[in-house]
Amino acid sequence: MSSAADAGTTGVAPSGQVIKSVIGIGASAGGLSALESFFENCPSDSGAVFVVIQHLSPTHESLMADLLSRRCAMPVRMIETDTPVEPDHVYLIPPNAVMRIEDDMLRLEPRHEGLSLPIDVFFESLARSYGEQAVGIVLSGTGADGTRGAIAINAAGGLVLIQDPADARFDGMPASVRGTGVADAVLPVGELAPKAIELQDRSRIVDLPRDVDIAPPTPEEPSEKATGPSTLNHIFELVREATGIDFRLYKSSTVMRRLGRRMQVLGVRDLPAYLAVIQNSPDEVAALHRELLISVTRFFRDSKPFEELEGSVIPAIIDSLDHHDTLRAWVAGCSTGEEAYSIAMLLHEGLHRAGRHQPIKIFATDVSQQNLEIAAAGVYPASIRTEVSPERIERFFLCEGESLKVSGALRQSIVFARHDLLTNPPFTRMHLVSCRNTLIYLRRRGQETALRRLKYAVQKGGYLFLGTSETMSGDQRGFHVCDGKNKIFRRVAEGYPDAGSMTVPITQSDDRVARSRREKSSLDASLAGSTGRPAAPAPNPEKDLFDAAVQSLLEAWAPPSILLDDKQNVLHFIGNVGAVLRTQPGRASLDLSRLLPQPIASVASVLVQKAIDAQQAFESDPIQVDDGEKASTLHLHAMPIRSPAQPTCVVLSFHTDDGAGMEGPHPERMDLATVAKTRIDILEADLNATRADLQATIEALETSNEELQATNEELMASNEELQSSNEELQSVNEEVNTVNAEFQEKMEQLNRANADLSSMIRAVGVATVFLDETLLIRRFSPDATRIFNLREGDIGRPLGDISHKLRYPDLLDNIRETIQSGTLLEREIAAGDSELFRLRISPYAVSGTTHRGVVLTLTDVTVHRTLKRLQSVIDALPEHVAVLHFDGTIAMANSAWNRFAAANGDPGLQTCGVGANYFEACEVGLSLPNGDEDSEDSRIATCVRRGLGEVLSGARSRFAIEYPCHTPDEERWFYMTAAPVSGSEFAAVVSHINITSWYRKIEAQFSGDMEGKSPSPD
Question: Is 145 a residue of the active site?
Answer without folding.
Answer: yes
